[in-house]
Please model this.
Amino acid sequence: MSLAGKRPQTAHGSFFLPCAAGEGDRAKRGGGGRGSRWPSLRPRGGGWSAFLLAALVAIAAPAIAKPQRVVSLNLCADELALRLADPGVVKSVTWLSQDPRNANLAAKAAALPANDGHAEEALAYDPDLVLVGAFSDPSSIALLRQAGAPVVKIGAPQTIDGVRRQIRDLAAALGEPQRGEALVADMDARLARVAVDPSAPPPTAIVLQPNGFTVGRGSLVDEILTRAGLDNLAARRLDVAAEPQVPLEVVASLAPDVLILDHSEETAPSLAEAALDHPAIVALEPRMMVVSLPARLWTCGGPQIAAAVERLAAVAAAARARRATP
Model:
């Protein structure tokens, strides 16, 4: 993740070092000696020296600048910022995060002004932090930086460990590292409760996305399937990476135990979703389990992936039971 434009940890750099330099200047002018009203800062086991040193450290410690006017121009950044920032800090989010069919925090996002992901919309709030995504318009990012707006770009994690890093990085940018650690700890606790027997052969599975795409090796979804106790056939049998298209004939020939439809929960019909509603899918149901998983659970790299693992672990258990039934 690029943290370009990230605000400094302290409001004016290190508070203690300039003060120490100032004391050196006074010494050159004859201060700090006998008769000076400025006592020496050399520790002598207590007294004024120890008191002043403690005071300087105490003053320096809380000087952490937190962004107070955050605008997000990316769906995944919307959700993480809403989870991590204080109420009122996030000033605007994308309209995508307000759609309950495709977003995890739609009710919370709906209370905020929506944007279409344009730099001009963000600058209207005089932001002290703008969040963008890996695929945000480069010209918009350049305009934001030219205008002096600090920009943080979140990526598209391909592993669960990458999700942890992204949460921590954004939490640090928002000045909320402890909340980031709490979010990671909660996600990890949920993942740890998913028990998978490594000695039992995992049920085979394949994911079918809109437009007939699937997910191969080296992807976040592939790791989610593995953590849930499923064997991703696209990664092992087809040996494909990223998100290639796969014909329904290939899906049928692979004969997975589980076919996972990656639905966006759209209500209006679309050509992209048509592949998931194809009659061939219905015909496959007697031969395999056909289940739907909301795309919002694994489209973004956030703590909601724990819910995806939990749901798929239940599916894997059902598939093992079905396979064991004569």
The chain has 14 helices and nine strands. The two ends are 51 Å apart (CA to CA). The domain at 204-324 is CATH 3.40.50.1980 (Rossmann fold).
